[in-house]
Design goal:
- This protein has a single domain, classed as Lipocalin (Beta Barrel), CATH 2.40.128.540.
- Helix content is 13%, strand content 38%.
- The model has no long low-confidence stretch (mean pLDDT 83).
- It has 1 helix and 10 strands.
- By secondary structure, it is mostly beta strands.
């Protein structure tokens, strides 16, 4: 008799515990989350340069080179260095505003240049890394930019 009471009590406890789990369900649907488009506009300062995988950041002062991407899709380059587009300005666009993989520059002459882009956070700051080959295509460069705070 004691065994039957224990078994019934155990079964009722299990039913109660399994029924209680239902109240802890997450009522939000997966549709309530959406990816935010990447905010590439702003002033970007060149921090590091890799040529064919080798860090050449200390060979010259790259810190004065700035890429300014404006909200109206125009761009300017300040203190020009070898880049995929000539000195001056033009317009910019990305292949996908949520997951950009290619950044396209269109200079004032109407010439297009595309570079691969990644968008990591490094030491708590948003960075842009552009992979390009200006001039000689046997050399690959990786320009790492950090967003300049305009506060």
């Amino acid at each position: 008799m004691k065994f039957k009471l224990k078994a019934i009590f155990l079964q009722l406890t299990m039913i109660f515990l399994l029924g209680a789990c239902d109240t802890f369900r997450d009522n939000t649907s997966d549709d309530s989350y959406s990816e935010v488009s990447k905010q590439l506009d702003g002033t970007w300062q060149l921090k590091t340069v890799l040529r064919n995988g080798n860090d050449i950041s200390n060979t010259m002062n790259f810190s004065q080179f700035h890429m300014v991407l404006n909200k109206d899709s125009s761009y300017t380059l300040e203190n020009y260095l070898p880049f995929v587009v000539s000195e001056g300005g033009g317009t910019w666009s990305v292949d996908d505003p949520y997951y950009p993989f290619l950044l396209t520059f269109r200079n004032e002459k109407g010439e297009n240049a595309q570079v691969e882009i990644s968008y990591p956070i490094v030491e708590g700051k948003r960075n842009i890394i552009l992979t390009l080959s200006p001039g000689c295509y046997s050399n690959s460069y990786e320009y790492s930019f950090e967003k300049v705070d305009n506060d």
